[in-house]
Amino acid sequence: MAWRVVVQGQTYETNPEELKQWVREGRVLPTDQVFQPGLGWSAAAQIPELQGWFPPGATTLLAPGTEGRMSASPYTSPYAAPSSPPPATAPYAPQSPPFDPYTPAYGQVGSYGYSPMLATMPASPASLGQRFIGSVVDGVLSMLCALPGIFLYMSAIAAGARDGAEIPAGRATGGYLLIYLGIIGYGLLCAYMTSTSGASPGKKVAGTVVLREDGQYLSFGMAILREVLKNVFSNICFLLNLWLLFDPARQQLYDKVVRANVYAR
């Protein structure tokens, strides 16, 4: 997996050597967010491979305890613009980062043109324990939503056994429908909460958040797709849930499809 850097709200895919070149040319701020495969997001000034390429004192813009957040101090690039920009390396953007990333872009939020989401992006993927807790809580809540249907179906079975007759078809069918409606309803709730706050009820309890690779929330449609794929993959083969144990970025297969991951808050 290649490295990624976010400059003025745009995500660019690159490699460590090209990223160093962009730092030397003044295209990347010490506070710009960089994604390292297997390590997650962090401020550029916090990455050992890049620290030596910033001007003296630039890395002190990040005070202790403020890693990954914007500094209030102004920063002016000491580098001269290169004669020609480096070529684009991925479909994230049609060109390399702008020559002057320190000038706010029109319509963007923040003193340097960064959105609040990118300014507080988590630095690392969620731990296996956090993901397990979130899954268990969501699973329990999903079953609670299906309880009315379960009770109705079980009452139909009990009525048939008590009367020595066939199970009441209408009551049993209604129970089936309520079970599926409860599970689907909870899945839609999770998708809505993921698209608006980055976390389902279970993930809120576990202290995790679902973000796209550019640090933004999933759209409602993509959040629904993630929920559907999660259930499909689990029903096809439960062992597919163990994929993240061997993935360097700790992504599940359905996370890879929607280009997102679960991060610790």
Short synopsis of the structure:
The chain has 265 residues and is α+β, with helices and mostly antiparallel strands. It has helices at 16-24, 48-51, 116-119, 128-163, 169-197, 201-206, 220-236, 253-258, and strands at residues 3-7, 10-14, 33-36, 40-43, 208-212, 260-264.
Task: Provide a descriptive summary of the structure in words.
- By secondary structure, this protein is an alpha+beta fold.
- It is built from 8 helices and 6 strands; from the N terminus they run ββαββαααααβααβ.
- Strands 2-1-3-4 form a 4-stranded antiparallel sheet. A two-stranded antiparallel sheet has the order 5-6.
- The longest helix has 36 residues.
- The chain is elongated.
- About 20% of the residues have low confidence.
Key traits:
four-stranded antiparallel beta sheet; 8 helices; 265 residues
Write the layout of secondary structure elements.
Elements: E1 3-7, E2 10-14, H1 16-24, E3 33-36, E4 40-43, H2 48-51, H3 116-119, H4 128-163, H5 169-197, H6 201-206, E5 208-212, H7 220-236, H8 253-258, E6 260-264
Antiparallel strand pairs: 1-2, 1-3, 3-4, 5-6
Helix pairs in contact: 4-5, 5-7
In N-to-C order, the SSE pattern is EEHEEHHHHHEHHE
The largest β sheet comes out as:
4 strands, antiparallel
Mean pLDDT comes to 74
Radius of gyration: 24 Å
Tell the overall outline.
elongated
In helices, the fraction of residues equals 40-55%
Strand elements, count: 6
Class computed from helices, strands and strand pairing: alpha+beta
Low-confidence stretches: 63-94, 100-120
- For the biggest β-sheet, the strand order reads 2-1-3-4
How many helical elements?
A: 8
Distance between the termini: 23 Å
Strand content: 5-15%
